[in-house]
């Protein structure tokens, strides 16, 4: 496998080499560029660009205004009106500075809503190039579709076919505060069907799989055709560029307008240094990760392929960082200060692609791409569990008693038409009417409008909003009468970023998802909880049984759908994963009365509180014959061994993320889970104990025909040792660990003590 796959350093060196080359071109063109900049600032476009190119640009803009206005909304400029009405194109000899400026400025100000519509249509064809990594996928750069099934990016991103084979493009990785949130779709590259990379022009073109790992069609994203037409851009202070990109791997962003061309080869440079060749220099805010982005004009035509920044330098030619200091070799590439950007012009790319010698299916792909045919508008797709999202702004609702049934419902019209069944996925509140369906009156079913009429009349649906969670107090830090803080994320996490909550139920809940009696901190990259922290009260006035208020899993509306692993990861007859509770339902299902206990039980059924676990972990006694109910018996035993005051526990549960976790679609399944239990006897210092449940042997051979379930094991381990393998810190809890007193160093290994029965648990005597 190529080096960039395994090493950021190798990829960064390729990027830095492009930056060095761009800096050389920047230096060689300093006099030409300075003269053009002065002409632009003086309002003299004919001194900044050639008359022939400016005439092409003017005619291009006039034609575009004709098309968009359709005679219904003429521009306010009398000169522009006259040019639009004239059947003759503007010739180079007809130009003067006033005409050029008025046409360019008139076109700039003559923007209908179509400008935004075109921009959105263009943005859907841009994706984030990702590479397969041990933790799932890792962001690499940007790319965009230029034809049916072909994606364009830089050669320094995909330098070889082997590199491309380990990569893909992630579409719809973007934030959306309005309308349904989008679920990112990863499409793997297929270089065996088509791959070409050119070092001189720093481009790579690769075939993309027709369907994503979630089975979404690539065709829904269209493409940005490469047009041979001249006049797409000019050197003019009022002629703008737009860039759609994934800088530093962030969700899709757009650098919109106010970005102008600084320099390009104009064709009439008799004495000027012709170092520019196929390149173009322009202003724009870009960063590492922007490589491979499309550079577009205000008509959303591709002008260039972005490939590098031009580094800012001091008088001694030292590269500068963003703080104004000297950037040194070995410093992060992301800290470099860029003074300008460089891209490869579309005309040069088309020329190179037209000369490729390919045959068969590859030739058919290339021909269709070079035909520059516009894609068909995207067809409207019916709502699916993966793209339905709660409204971003909550509507006032009537408070619902905890005794009312809260379930997650999505109607599958294909499955339910005959069987009258519902598939469970999205968060909505449902009141079910029992009785004669035929006699039912007004039917109100939101988010399930495709259901048969007989089903619609049975349901009255109200969507759950983030504001509905404002009454959840979450994990109580002082539940034991002493401060037991919520775990924190280490400064440099190895397995993912801490997720910032997009729609907070409370102003202070920047990262914490509060539920009844427990809280969750989410790993943004893994889409699973870092930790689920719970308070357990065995002496509460009411406890809900497993038959009261549970069973229906739901997405949390405070997060985007694609920020949590939903039912898609547990479906299928060959899928042996269960939704494993992190905070157990029995631990959370308590309260001052039955209604409160039932509501708390329901809260434990959020996907944020689950992780894929082998189904045998939920059938432990059948599997082991040891009468050990895993976590439940462990907690009960700890409680029973204490005095009467040990009826309250604080419990931390979560996955042990690792580099060898098991792939499941586009996610990774943790091979182990931790549990930390904290208690306090009277006024004594708190005590704590830690366990790790290992399911590695169970899941190692999943997704292959021969399943060998192997075994699982529970080990009691030092909390400090558990913490070493995690991205989270337990704070003072590690110091309360009873293993420090009960086991001598010589008799204890880092792997801990295997727990086969509750009597194996080490507690203070």
Question: Would you write up a description of this structure?
Answer:
The chain is of the alpha+beta class. The chain is 22% helix and 24% strand. The protein has an eight-stranded antiparallel beta sheet with strand order 18-19-20-25-28-29-30-32. It has a seven-stranded antiparallel beta sheet with strand order 5-4-1-2-3-7-6. The protein starts with a helix and ends in a 10-residue tail after the last strand.
Contiguous low-pLDDT stretches (5 residues minimum) are 1-7, 382-463, 619-629, 701-712, 743-748
Count helical runs.
Answer: 20
**Kindly state the mean pLDDT as a whole number?**
79
Derived from helix and strand composition plus strand pairing, the structural class reads alpha+beta
Helix content: 10-25%
Morphology call: elongated
Number of strands: 32
Strand order of the largest sheet: 18-19-20-25-28-29-30-32
Concise structural overview:
It is built from 20 helices and 32 strands. The chain has 765 residues and is α+β, with helices and mostly antiparallel strands.
Topology:
Blueprint: H1 3-6, H2 8-28, H3 30-41, H4 45-48, H5 51-69, H6 78-85, H7 97-109, H8 114-123, E1 126-133, E2 136-147, E3 150-153, H9 161-165, E4 167-171, E5 185-188, E6 195-198, E7 203-207, E8 240-245, E9 253-264, E10 279-282, E11 294-297, E12 302-311, E13 338-345, H10 346-354, H11 360-370, E14 408-410, H12 413-419, E15 423-432, H13 453-456, E16 459-463, E17 488-489, E18 512-514, E19 518-523, E20 528-537, E21 542-543, E22 577-581, H14 585-588, E23 590-591, H15 594-603, E24 610-614, H16 620-624, H17 630-640, E25 648-656, E26 662-664, E27 667-669, E28 672-679, E29 687-694, H18 696-699, E30 713-717, H19 719-724, E31 728-729, H20 739-742, E32 753-755
Antiparallel strand pairs: 1-2, 1-4, 2-3, 3-7, 4-5, 6-7, 8-9, 8-11, 9-10, 10-13, 11-12, 12-13, 14-15, 15-16, 17-31, 18-19, 19-20, 20-25, 21-23, 22-24, 25-28, 26-27, 28-29, 29-30, 30-32
Helix pairs in contact: 5-7
């Amino acid at each position: 496998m190529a080096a960039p796959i395994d090493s950021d350093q190798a990829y960064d060196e390729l990027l830095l080499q492009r930056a060095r080359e761009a800096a050389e071109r920047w230096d060689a063109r300093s006099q030409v560029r300075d003269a053009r900049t002065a002409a632009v600032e003086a309002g003299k476009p004919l001194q900044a660009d050639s008359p022939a190119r400016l005439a092409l640009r003017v005619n291009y803009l006039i034609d575009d205004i004709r098309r968009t206005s359709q005679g219904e909304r003429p521009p306010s400029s009398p000169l522009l009106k006259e040019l639009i009405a004239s059947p003759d194109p503007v010739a180079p000899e007809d130009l003067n500075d006033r005409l050029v400026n008025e046409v360019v400025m008139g076109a700039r100000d003559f923007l209908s809503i179509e400008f935004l519509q075109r921009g959105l249509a263009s943005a859907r064809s841009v994706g984030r190039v990702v590479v397969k990594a041990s933790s799932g996928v890792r962001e690499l750069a940007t790319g965009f579709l230029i034809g049916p099934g072909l994606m364009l990016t830089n050669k320094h991103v995909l330098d070889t076919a082997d590199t491309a084979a380990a990569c893909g493009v992630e579409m719809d990785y973007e934030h959306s505060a309005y309308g349904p949130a989008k679920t990112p779709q990863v499409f793997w590259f297929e270089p065996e069907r088509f791959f070409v990379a050119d070092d001189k022009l720093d481009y790579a073109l690769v075939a993309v799989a027709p369907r994503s790992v979630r089975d979404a069609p690539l065709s829904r994203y269209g493409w940005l055709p490469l047009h041979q037409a001249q006049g797409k851009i000019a050197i003019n202070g009022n002629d703008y560029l737009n860039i759609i990109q994934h800088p530093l791997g962030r969700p899709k962003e757009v650098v919109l307008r106010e970005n102008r061309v600084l320099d390009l080869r104009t064709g009439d440079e008799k004495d000027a240094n012709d170092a520019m060749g196929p390149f173009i220099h322009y202003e724009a805010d870009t960063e590492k990760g922007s490589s491979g982005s499309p550079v577009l004009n205000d008509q959303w035509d591709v002008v260039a392929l972005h490939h590098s920044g031009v580094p800012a330098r001091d008088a001694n030619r030292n590269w500068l960082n963003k703080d104004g200091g000297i950037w040194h070799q070995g410093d992060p590439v992301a800290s470099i200060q860029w003074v300008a950007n460089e891209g490869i012009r579309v005309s040069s790319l088309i020329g190179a692609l037209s000369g490729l010698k390919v045959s068969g299916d590859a030739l058919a792909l290339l021909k269709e791409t070079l035909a520059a045919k516009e894609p068909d508008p995207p067809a409207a797709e019916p709502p699916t569990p993966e793209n339905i999202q709660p409204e971003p702004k909550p509507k006032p609702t009537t408070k619902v008693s905890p005794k009312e049934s809260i379930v997650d419902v999505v109607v599958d019209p294909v499955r339910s038409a005959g069987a009258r069944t519902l598939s469970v996925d999205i968060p909505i509140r449902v009141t079910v009417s029992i009785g004669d369906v035929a006699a039912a009156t007004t039917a109100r079913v939101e988010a399930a409008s495709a259901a048969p009429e007989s089903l619609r009349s049975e349901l009255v649906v109200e969507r759950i909003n983030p504001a509905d969670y404002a009454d959840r107090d979450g994990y109580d830090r002082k539940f034991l009468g002493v401060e037991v803080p919520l775990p924190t994320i280490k400064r440099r996490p190895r397995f993912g970023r801490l997720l910032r909550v997009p729609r907070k139920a409370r102003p202070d809940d920047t990262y914490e998802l509060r539920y009844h009696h427990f809280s969750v901190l989410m790993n943004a990259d893994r889409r699973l909880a870092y930790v689920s922290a719970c308070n357990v009260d065995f002496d509460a006035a009411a406890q809900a049984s497993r038959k009261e208020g549970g069973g229906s899993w739901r997405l949390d509306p405070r997060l985007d759908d694609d920020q949590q692993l939903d039912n898609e990861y547990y479906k299928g007859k060959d899928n042996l994963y269960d939704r494993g509770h992190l905070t157990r339902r029995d631990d959370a299902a308590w309260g001052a009365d039955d209604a409160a206990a039932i509501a708390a039980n329901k809260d434990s059924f959020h996907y944020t509180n689950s992780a894929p676990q082998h189904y045998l972990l939920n059938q432990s006694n059948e599997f082991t014959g040891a009468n050990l109910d895993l976590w439940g018996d462990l907690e009960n035993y700890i409680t029973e061994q204490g005095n009467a005051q040990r009826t309250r526990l604080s419990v931390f549960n979560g996955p042990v993320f690792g580099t060898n976790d098991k792939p499941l679609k586009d996610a990774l399944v943790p091979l182990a889970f931790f549990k930390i239990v904290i208690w306090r006897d009277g006024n004594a210092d708190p005590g704590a104990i830690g366990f790790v449940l290992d399911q590695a042997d169970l899941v190692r051979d999943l997704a292959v025909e021969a399943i060998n379930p192997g075994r699982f094991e529970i080990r009691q381990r030092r909390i400090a040792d558990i913490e070493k393998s995690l991205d989270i810190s337990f704070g003072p809890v590690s110091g309360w660990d009873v293993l420090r007193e009960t086991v001598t160093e010589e008799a204890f290994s880092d792997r801990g003590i295997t727990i086969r029965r509750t009597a194996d648990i080490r507690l203070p005597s």
